């Protein structure tokens, strides 16, 4: 079966205090730390890169759930492995031609391979990656257009989550964008088990309460 993974998005943290922000989230009950690696050719923003993952790894043993929003994810497999990434989730829109090689290299680097899809990408496009001989182990359904934290959750993306959960009972299904106390039940009942949450967790007076609420909803 699938287990809940609550993954605060460090994009909403105080980057000048990244190590203590990470420690605070883990202390508040986070399972994973979600790391948004963005390049301006894929999204209209520029965030963290490999050196930041490398620096953070020296301060924590936590699972670093890396979400690659770059046009050339293959170029980052080896650098991110060396830097200490745990999960490597690339976007299908960037990797239609070379995903088998990409997945194989992520796995042989000891990381967990995942694939993400933008809101406009049909879910059918990722079925071959889940059914491959060397499959992805996580599918990230974007519930906002990638690029920025603090956007509004798109409930219409739950059709994708429901279809995936029906087809693949033990797949890790992650949702990312606009998740918080008011949207978690929609996502959890559709079948998501990995929950990324940035502004709702970091903006809360008591992040531990939000993390625990997200977990309880997935466990229901
Ligand atoms: C958006 C990023 C998300 C973002 C989520 O492109 O992939 O991880 O940080 O932030 P919230 O939870 O604030 O929507
Ligand atoms: Zn993300």
UniProtKB/TrEMBL annotation:
InterPro entries: Aldolase_TIM (IPR013785), Ribul_P_3_epim (IPR026019), Ribul_P_3_epim-like (IPR000056), RibuloseP-bd_barrel (IPR011060)
Ribonucleoprotein recorded as keyword: no
Reaction catalysed by this enzyme: D-ribulose 5-phosphate = D-xylulose 5-phosphate
EC class (word): isomerase
CDD domains xref list: RPE
Residues annotated as binding a divalent metal cation: 34, 36, 67, 176
EC number: 5.1.3.1
Cofactor(s) required for function per UniProt: Co(2+); a divalent metal cation; Mn(2+); Fe(2+)
UniProt keyword list: Carbohydrate metabolism, Cobalt, Isomerase, Manganese, Metal-binding, Zinc
Free-text cofactor note: Binds 1 divalent metal cation per subunit.
A GO MF label: D-ribulose-phosphate 3-epimerase activity
Domain of life: Eukaryota
Binding site for substrate: 9, 67, 147-150, 178, 198-199
Active site: 36 (proton acceptor), 176 (proton donor)
Alphabetical GO biological process terms: carbohydrate metabolic process; pentose-phosphate shunt
Family: Belongs to the ribulose-phosphate 3-epimerase family.
Protein name: Ribulose-phosphate 3-epimerase
